[in-house]
């Protein structure tokens, strides 16, 4: 947006400079509006020209192109207007050089003067404005910006919330906030498993009445 505004202002300034240039002196004190458009193709003559058939005509056309390009935000149209101004100005310089034998720049009013500089500067500003403009956005970019980002949708009741790497049930499957109980609570190592007995048990004393060895009958009670 900022680039379009800045480029449009620069291009409009170039169009104003180009339109005002024919009303200033171009060569040896002669105004630019006194040169006919046909002289640019047939050769420079001393015949004076009307305003609407002078070199002002292509510059007005270029100014209209700039206005259309700014409204449509078209960089191509603005650049085309700059090329029109520069093309007619350079063509005039070629014809004027052929008529005068050479082109000179003099500070005493002889040679090229400020009107030519205004025309060249106006065309250059139009090209710069076209480069600064961003132009119109494509339909695809506009659709991408207008389309809202869909939030994450929770799974339906008949769907299982799984995580892709492991396919394990997620939090939505659990119906209770408390952890699920173990199916078979842990009761310690199996005493019958030889792998869980890391230390050998001491042999029981057969005379010990409290801890008799396995297979030893308990002592008989004393007779009265």
From TrEMBL:
Domain of life: Bacteria
Pro residues: bias regions: 212-224
Keyword Transmembrane: yes
Transmembrane portions of the chain: 51-71, 76-94, 114-133
Chain intervals for the UniProt region annotation (Disordered): 137-224
Keywords assigned by UniProt, alphabetized: Membrane, Transmembrane, Transmembrane helix
Protein name per its UniProtKB record: Integral membrane protein
Species assigned in the record: Streptomyces durocortorensis
């Amino acid at each position: 947006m900022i680039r379009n505004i800045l480029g449009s202002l620069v291009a409009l300034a170039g169009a104003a400079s180009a339109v005002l240039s024919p009303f200033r002196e171009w060569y040896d004190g002669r105004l630019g509006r006194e040169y006919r458009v046909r002289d640019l193709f047939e050769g420079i003559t001393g015949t004076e020209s009307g305003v609407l058939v002078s070199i002002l005509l292509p510059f007005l056309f270029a100014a209209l192109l700039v206005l259309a390009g700014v409204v449509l935000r078209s960089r191509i149209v603005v650049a085309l207007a700059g090329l029109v101004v520069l093309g007619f100005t350079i063509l005039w310089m070629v014809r004027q050089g052929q008529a005068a034998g050479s082109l000179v720049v003099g500070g005493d009013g002889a040679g090229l003067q400020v009107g030519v500089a205004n025309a060249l500067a106006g065309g250059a500003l139009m090209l710069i404005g076209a480069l600064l403009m961003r132009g119109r956005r494509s339909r695809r970019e506009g659709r991408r910006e207008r389309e809202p980002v869909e939030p994450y949708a929770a799974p339906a009741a008949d769907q299982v919330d799984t995580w892709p790497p492991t396919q394990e049930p997620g939090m939505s499957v659990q119906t209770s906030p408390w952890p699920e109980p173990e199916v078979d609570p842990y009761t310690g190592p199996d005493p019958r498993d030889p792998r869980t007995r890391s230390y050998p048990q001491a042999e029981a004393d057969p005379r010990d009445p409290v801890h008799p060895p396995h297979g030893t009958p308990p002592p008989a009670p004393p007779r009265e």
